[in-house]
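Subject: Re: docking follow-up (NAP)

Dear J.,

Thanks for your patience while I sorted out the input files. As discussed at Tuesday's group meeting, I've set up the holo structure prediction with NAP included as the bound ligand rather than trying to dock it afterwards. The sequence and the ligand SMILES I used are pasted below, so you can double-check that they match what you have on your end before we go further.
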Amino acid sequence: MASEITTIKAWTYSEYGHSVDVLKFDPNVPIPQVKDDQALIKVAAASLNPIDYKRMEGAFKASDSPLPTAPGYDVSGVVVKVGSEVKKFKVGDEVYGDINVKALEYPKVIGSLAEYTAAEEILLAHKPKNLSFAEAASLPLTIETAYEGLERTGFSAGKSILVLGGAGGVGTHVIQLAKHVYGASKVAATSSTKKLELLSNLGADLPIDYTKENFEDLPEKFDVVFDTVGETEKAFKALKEGGKVVTIVPPGFPPSIFFILPSNGAILEKLNPYLESGKVKPVLDPKSPFPFSQSVEAFSYLETGRATGKVVIHPIP
Ligand SMILES: NC(=O)c1ccc[n+]([C@@H]2O[C@H](COP(=O)([O-])OP(=O)(O)OC[C@H]3O[C@@H](n4cnc5c(N)ncnc54)[C@H](OP(=O)(O)O)[C@@H]3O)[C@@H](O)[C@H]2O)c1
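The structure tokens for the complex came back this morning:
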């Protein structure tokens, strides 16, 4: 019973630095306290995002939570306890979500690289029944970011889009949502040569090999460019008149639309039918899942910037 457990296993760091130097296994971390609006989750799987290593390197020290901390925004698992105000979930429910309300402001001290984590119910959704825990954990932060970015451009059926970084965690979902949820007229996306086939499989009509072609020099222009790489200036050269550039890579500059995702379980609930019908699929890097014991290796791999889809940690014992 979770209520009898006082300490849990987790990966934590006590100082900022690269994962190989600072991330350590800790068998005795106090179990997170559950607030009234939170659920305690027995973690089954976690996925890593670039923000995890940026935070670990101290990129937003001033607004970070105190160290030591266990990293991990994305989780899937089973609810083992609920706070008094929780209405949507009960003990035994399978859930998934991005557990941090605001990515850069006081993320949870105990993240998802832990046996148990706690999160507000508004950040969580029921796990799609057809997905494994590893698949579900791969989704929240990236698919919510993809959806939020498309919404902020006012994306709708019949519009065209160019996705910069189509093979990454976010890009793989921008392609799928634009094509299979919004009904884009045309989806173009960039990647290196070996990943072009994946882009097509996800729904890209025009995969562009950035090692051979400059997307900004192509004659075709787009209603929206979604920048997941940090090429905002060039993105404007690929835009139709009146089109919009959305970027998720800081700093972003006007007139591009830049945002930092506020986590929101309602987006996941909204997308669950598309995940359950198989129209939108999780994309796990071929090296995934990494077992819990290889969390440092998983970080090192994500830090190369070459992951395809998501780096997932599973099982978490
Ligand atoms: N603002 C927000 O709320 C928010 C939310 C999520 C993510 N982000 C940020 O967005 C960025 C992407 O996140 P992510 O999770 O998608 O990262 P990721 O999964 O680590 O992205 C890796 C992918 O990027 C591709 N890539 C790298 N350089 C490229 C280039 N010049 N052109 C095309 N593709 C390129 C790589 O493909 P190749 O090997 O083919 O190059 C690789 O597949 C990160 O900086 C992250 O911190 C921000």
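A couple of observations from a first look. The chain has two domains: 2-139+283-313, 142-258. The CA atoms of residues 89 and 101 lie 18 Å apart.

Let me know if you'd like me to rerun anything.

Best regards,
T.
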